Each structure stands twice: as C-alpha cells, then as structure tokens.
C-alpha cells in the first residue's frame, strides 16, 4: 500500500517519542548486559535489568507504525509479537527484584513463576483463538494488582530510610501511576487523550533501578578493594612467619617450595635449629584453605616454638603441639610431619600426625622408600601420645616432606597424582641438585595435572652429603 510523504511525516512525528525512547532503552539494555556480564556473579541484578530494558525498548520499537511499514510483515503477526512481549516484559524486572532483595527471594521467585506461567498461557491462548491480546483484560488486571502491590511494598511502614529506598520509591511510584492509568484506559474504565504514559513511567523506573544497582556494584567493588588490601596484609603477615632463609649446616642442603592456593594458606613449614649440627624440620597442613586456615597456621607456629626444649624428639614435639592446639582449632585439625637430623651422631628421628609418609631416597641408586610413623591428627584428641622411629643417617640420603596437595593433584579425569608417581619423579631426579630436583617434582605434577592446583602445596627437600663433613 503506497504512502504519501505527508502521511509518512505524520507517522514519523507520532512515532518519534517511542522510537527515540525505544532506541535509548535498547542501547541502555545492551550496555547493562555487557557490563553485568563482565562483572559476572557480582552483578546478576544488572543482567536482569538489562534484559528488561532491552525487551521493553524492543516493544516500543515494534509498536512504531513507521517501523512496521518498513517490513513486509502482516499486521496480525506484529500484533502477536506485541502481545507476547506484553505478557513477557514483567518477568525480568521481577527477577531483578529477586536479585537485589535476597531477603524476599521466595516472594519474588513465586511472582516470576506466576508471571511466566501467565505468559505461556497468553501466548497459547492467542494461538488457539487466533486473536492477539486475547488475555489482554486479564493482563490488565494482573498489571494493576501488581503495581498496587509494589506501591504497598515500597511504602510499607518500618522500612529503614536510605537513598536506595528513596530512589526505589521514586521509580515505583512513577511506573505504578502510569501503568495503572494506561491499564484502566485499556479496560475502558478511564479515558484520557494523548500517548501511553507507561513508557515514561518505566523509563523513570529503569533510571531508578539502574541507580540502585550501580550504587550496589560500586559498593561491592569498594568492598572487594578493602578485602584485597586486607588479604595483601594477611599475605605479608603469613610470609613473615615462614622461614626467611634455609638452614645452613655443614653437609645439609635444605630446599623448600610453598605454593598457596589463594592469597594465604593453611600449609606451614618451619625449622628448629638446636645448634650447628642438629636440626628439626616441621611440615604441617591445616584443614581448609584461605584466611581461616592461615590463622590456624599461625597458631601452629606458636605451638612449635613452645617445643624447643625437646626439639630432638618428634614424639615429644607432636604431643606438645597437640596439647597446645586441642580445643583451639574451632573444630578443625592439623596434620604434621617432623624430622629431626643429628649430624654429629649420624642419626635421624621421625614422627607424624595423620600426615602423608615422608619419602627417603639414596642419590646413589635412586631407590625411594616410604617412611611412615603416624599418630592422630593434631588438635583432635587431648593427651594423645605419639611415637617416633630412629634410623642411621646414610650416605647421600635425600628426604622429602610435603603436604597432600602434591599427591592429591588431579588431572582431567579426576585421578590423583598419587604417591607412586611422586616416588617415580623423585627417582628421575636422583642426579639433580636439590634446587633442581625440587623444581622437577613440581613440574612433573603440573604437567601431569594440566590444570590449576586445587589445594595448597608445600614441600621441603633435604640432601645429606657426608663428604662435606669429613
């Protein structure tokens, strides 16, 4: 059907407000969706707000006569599209409210399910009756009841005054008055000239909700900065409680590697240097990760420091630490392994508390043995006694103490690296210097796993070279 220029100008003039507002809402919706996607979980509310803005702006555009004229689509199809959007458009704004008011999650979830059910009903009814907006009267009634409920909810007594509440009230009042007026006009209860008021009201609502959502995102970002700053301080503190240098004893080479899963960790290691020829080595693992585990790890250091008078006895050290930690770990526990090396007597003592076995190899032939002398985990049972084993310090001995993050590293099939692979890696590094051998072990684990670590990881490798003492 041909349209003369005068009719086209009149149509453009009549549609100008809807076109401009629709385009603005679509652009706003797209920008909000992109921004919310970048922020991910911290901005679910922005995703729903963007979806609503995009859907509502699209409905304004498709209602414009000049846009419909630009496409060779029957009017009945446009009306079906318009009806489907009308039934659907409230759903994302209700889901936005669900995300931004978690205390009322169940209420808003029920509302979203109800609206989704009605939208399905409306679309099916239109298709069955071959008539767009066949559920229009019901939709008008639902819309009026919904917006009256919104006004009652945001203006109910007992709410704590805040700038967020003030912004929500402005948006809710604007859209509710406009939407109720338009729906009453649609039901022919009211009659007044001029365009629909609802788009104006919804624009004010979107601006209000976007303001609230932005405030919350900014507040979350600020809180994240504060948390990161505190974590950085915690990282510095934890770093300060770890050994700042390796023990320097004639004939011994000691190497350590410490890889926390997060900024701070529950893994811990320390040395007790009794004199120039006697050394105690502790490797411990607090259950859990992050700040709570790191706080408990600092308690482990205090507990170890209190055992210096009997640092030559792993059994006494572990028993004393257990007494100190029992009742102070808030339901958590600690595994630990303690190795004592006496260079003068050419002797070692070893004991552990629920910890993976120490590995002992001879650099001459590469044979690797598991050394296990375990008791209960620390902090688990008061007055628990521990045992220790004593053996001769052999020529070219190599000892490996580690936390379970090393052997429980998983590959894509969720298979543990395991102690047998660790022993094979230690054998392969027989001829390597302690520093290089330690790095080789970590490389073997990372290559086999092929994915980021799932636990804190600590290891201490000790090489004995009796040639340096003769």
Automatic annotation (TrEMBL):
Residues 249-464 form the PPM-type phosphatase domain. InterPro entries: Bact_Sigma-Reg (IPR052016), PPM-type-like_dom_sf (IPR036457), PPM-type_phosphatase-like_dom (IPR001932). The chain crosses the membrane at residues 16-36, 43-61, 81-100, 107-125, 137-155, 167-187, 199-219. SUPFAM superfamilies: PP2C-like. One of its GO terms (molecular function) is phosphatase activity. Its EC number is 3.1.3.3. Keywords: Hydrolase, Membrane, Transmembrane, Transmembrane helix. The keyword Membrane applies. It holds the Pfam family SpoIIE. PANTHER family: STAGE II SPORULATION PROTEIN E, STAGE II SPORULATION PROTEIN E-RELATED. This is Phosphoserine phosphatase RsbU. The lineage of its organism: Bacteria, Pseudomonadati, Acidobacteriota, Vicinamibacteria, Vicinamibacterales. The gene is rsbU_2.
């Amino acid at each position: 059907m041909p349209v003369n220029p005068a009719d086209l100008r009149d149509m453009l003039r009549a549609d100008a407000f809807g076109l401009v507002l629709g385009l603005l809402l679509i652009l706003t919706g797209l920008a909000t969706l992109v921004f919310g996607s970048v922020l991910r979980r911290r901005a679910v509310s922005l995703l729903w707000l963007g979806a609503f803005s995009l859907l509502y702006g699209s409905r304004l555009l498709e209602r414009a006569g000049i846009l419909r004229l630009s496409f060779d689509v029957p009017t009945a199809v446009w009306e079906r599209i318009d009806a489907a959007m009308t039934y659907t458009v409230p759903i994302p704004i209700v889901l936005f409210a669900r995300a931004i008011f978690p205390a009322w999650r169940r209420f808003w979830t029920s509302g979203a399910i109800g609206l989704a059910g009605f939208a399905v009903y409306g679309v099916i009814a239109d298709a069955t009756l071959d008539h767009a907006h066949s559920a229009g009267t019901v939709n008008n009634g639902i819309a009026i009841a919904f917006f009256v409920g919104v006004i009652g909810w945001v203006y109910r007594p007992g709410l704590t005054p805040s700038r967020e509440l003030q912004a929500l009230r402005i948006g809710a009042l604007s859209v509710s008055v406009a939407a109720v007026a338009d729906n009453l006009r649609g039901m022919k209860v009211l009659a007044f000239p001029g365009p629909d008021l609802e788009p104006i009201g919804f624009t004010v609502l979107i601006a209000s909700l976007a303001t609230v959502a932005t405030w919350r995102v900014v507040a979350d970002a600020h809180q994240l900065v504060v948390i990161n700053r505190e974590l950085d301080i915690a990282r510095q503190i934890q770093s300060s409680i770890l050994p700042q240098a390796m023990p320097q004893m004639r004939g011994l080479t000691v190497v350590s590697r410490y890889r926390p899963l997060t900024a701070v960790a529950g893994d811990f290691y320390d040395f007790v240097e009794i004199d120039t020829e006697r050394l105690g080595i502790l490797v411990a693992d607090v259950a859990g990760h992050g700040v709570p585990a790191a706080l408990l790890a600092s308690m482990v250091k205090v507990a170890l420091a209190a055992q210096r008078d009997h640092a030559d006895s792993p059994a006494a050290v572990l028993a004393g630490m257990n007494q100190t930690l029992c009742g102070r770990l808030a339901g958590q526990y600690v595994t630990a392994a303690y190795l004592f090396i006496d260079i003068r007597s050419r002797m070692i003592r070893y004991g552990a508390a629920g910890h993976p076995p120490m590995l002992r190899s001879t650099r001459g032939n590469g044979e690797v043995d598991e050394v296990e002398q375990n008791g209960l985990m620390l902090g688990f049972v008061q007055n628990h006694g521990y045992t220790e084993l004593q053996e001769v310090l052999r020529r070219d001995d190599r000892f490996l103490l580690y936390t379970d993050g090393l052997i429980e590293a998983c590959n894509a099939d969720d298979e543990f690296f395991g102690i047998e692979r660790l022993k094979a890696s230690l054998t392969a590094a027989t001829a390597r210097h302690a520093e290089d051998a330690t790095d080789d072990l970590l490389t073997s684990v990372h290559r086999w796993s092929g994915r980021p670590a799932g636990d804190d990881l600590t290891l201490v490798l000790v090489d004995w070279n009796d040639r340096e003492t003769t």
